Structure formats: structure tokens, C-alpha cells
Amino acid sequence: MYKYTIAKQIANKKVITSKGEDLGKIVDLVIDEGSGEIEALLVEIMPDSKFVKKKGLTDKIVEVPYASVTAVSDVIIVDEKGIPSD
Fold this sequence. Notes:
This protein has one domain (2-82): PRC-barrel domain (SH3 type barrels, Roll), CATH 2.30.30. It has a six-stranded mixed beta sheet with strand order 4-3-2-1-6-5. The protein is built from two helices and six strands, in the order αβββαβββ. By secondary structure, it is an alpha+beta fold. Helix content is 17%, strand content 41%. The radius of gyration is 12 Å and the shape is globular.
């Protein structure tokens, strides 16, 4: 039950980089079925974001490893190094 509560709390949250640049919003999670741990965030990118353009991201959704999450509050903050490039 606890993992569902966490998923509801972070659904649709805005995702920004550790340097404060917009990335997008969470649309889904990748969860390990055995352990119930979050493995990655599926983020719908903001195509007009400077960071997205600089990184060369062209897909509408990017998978960000959960290990890259540095903080969770009103927004999700992720380390830029963990965001894959196209």
C-alpha cells in the first residue's frame, strides 16, 4: 500500500535539473515488481526547455534513473548527469 501512496504523491510533478532547468513532468514510474522499489521516472519532456534542446532530446518521454533523483518536494530535482542524451 505504501508504494502506491508514493506513486500518487509524485504523479504529474514537475521535474527540474539540479541547476534549476525545466525538464518536464512525471507521467509514469518503472517499478521493480519483486522489491517494489522505484527504478526510474518516465518524464514527459518540455520541448521548449533550454535544457532539452541543449541535451538534444527528441523523444517525448525520457527515462530518468531513480538514482539520479536528488530531492523530492513540490518538484522533483534530478542530477543532469543521469539524464540520457539522444
